[in-house]
């Protein structure tokens, strides 16, 4: 009798520990689910997944990966925007990007925030409202920035670098949409206006999945890129980050509590328009793909509204 009871418990345990790619999606019944994405053979891009194992419970607390498989009709952002209380972003975290923009290497991480209304799905359009469009002698200067994004799992206050990863759920890729017109040209010189230039609605696509720290034990080894209309514009490695994931989490926890579901965009490598002699600023209809190795891609079209 006893061993019959043990079998289901053992199965649940086995399935839970294998959670790798947390996704949130709409299935064929029109309902929303959390799931562990099933990768097609040949790719680790969760955006290409057509099915997921349904997750019951809270991905930040107690959950189970069930044996039920659902078809993915559309991938949502990995967490609902309103659950993400703080979107932290790091500026100037790759030497190549600092060089291309003629700035100096910071001694401490440069932090700014985006409102959570800026979060977007891995595939919806990036809306550009009238005040951000080119008009008269004001040139919009829209730019792309691919970034590794950290998703917090547990509260963190005053923690060390060594404790940092215990507080992290996983990693995803994010697009820090940037508008140099408002960020720099209409910034209060000598200070740029990061928030006006980067915080508009939908200007932070993220996803397609949160890949667990078990699947990515070392986040500083991943290829990271951007393609604009299919052409590679950024192509680097997270190995080139000045301040790595562990240090960013510990540094930001100094005096400020990081909460579960908070996300941290960790800065972009070189290749952005801002660093180019002849930039081709993003405009209506341009398709931007940001990608991170072993995580996947977000592909969003710029849409004037
Ligand atoms: C895997 O990708 C390669 C190159 O893109 C392709 O030739 C091959 O057919 C793919 N295999 C499968 C099983 O999809
Ligand atoms: C630094 O930027 C300049 C252009 O501003 C470029 O010519 C040079 O190759 C860059 N150096 C590095 C190490 O990226
Ligand atoms: C950086 O400096 C170079 C050389 O002076 C200049 O051509 C370029 O426009 C500058 N780039 C930025 C983003 O200021
Ligand atoms: C922060 O952590 C350090 C090292 O563990 C400890 O000495 C210090 O008292 C802590 N500070 C606060 C405000 O908790
Ligand atoms: C991008 O970088 C990776 C890793 O360094 C390299 O293998 C690949 O060839 C690069 N792709 C392009 C299009 O430059």
Automatic annotation (TrEMBL):
SUPFAM superfamilies: FAH. It comes from the Eukaryota. It holds the Pfam family FAA_hydrolase. Keywords: Metal-binding, Signal. Residues 87-302 form the Fumarylacetoacetase-like C-terminal domain. Residues 1-19 form the signal peptide. InterPro entries: Fumarylacetoacetase-like_C, Fumarylacetoacetase_C_sf. GO terms for molecular function: metal ion binding; oxaloacetate tautomerase activity. GO terms for biological process: oxaloacetate metabolic process. Belongs to the FAH family. This is Fumarylacetoacetase-like C-terminal domain-containing protein.
């Amino acid at each position: 009798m006893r061993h019959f009871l043990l079998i289901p418990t053992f199965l649940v345990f086995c399935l839970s520990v294998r959670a790798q790619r947390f996704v949130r999606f709409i299935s064929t019944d029109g309902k929303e689910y959390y799931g562990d994405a099933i990768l097609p053979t040949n790719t680790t891009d969760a955006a290409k997944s057509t099915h997921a194992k349904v997750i019951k419970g809270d991905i930040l607390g107690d959950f189970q990966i069930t044996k039920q498989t659902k078809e993915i009709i559309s991938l949502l952002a990995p967490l609902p925007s309103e659950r993400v209380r703080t979107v932290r972003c790091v500026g100037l975290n790759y030497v190549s990007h600092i060089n291309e923009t003629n700035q100096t290497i910071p001694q401490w991480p440069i932090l700014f925030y985006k409102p959570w209304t800026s979060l977007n799905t891995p595939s919806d359009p990036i809306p550009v409202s009238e005040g951000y469009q080119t008009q008269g002698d004001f040139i919009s200067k829209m730019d792309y920035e691919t970034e590794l994004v950290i998703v917090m799992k547990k509260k963190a206050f005053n923690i060390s670098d060594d404790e940092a990863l215990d507080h992290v759920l996983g990693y995803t890729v994010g697009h820090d949409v940037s508008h140099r017109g408002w960020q720099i040209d209409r910034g209060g010189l000598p200070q740029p206006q990061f928030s006006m230039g980067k915080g508009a609605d939908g200007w932070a696509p993220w996803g397609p999945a949160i890949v667990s720290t078990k699947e990515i034990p070392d986040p500083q080894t991943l290829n990271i890129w951007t393609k604009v209309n299919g052409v590679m514009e950024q192509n680097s490695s997270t190995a080139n980050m000045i301040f790595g994931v562990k240090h960013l989490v510990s540094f930001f926890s100094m005096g400020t509590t990081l909460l579960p579901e908070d996300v941290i965009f960790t800065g972009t490598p070189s290749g952005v328009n801002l660093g180019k002699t002849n930039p081709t600023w993003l405009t209506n209809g341009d398709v931007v793909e940001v990608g991170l190795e072993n995580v996947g891609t977000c592909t969003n079209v710029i849409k004037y509204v």
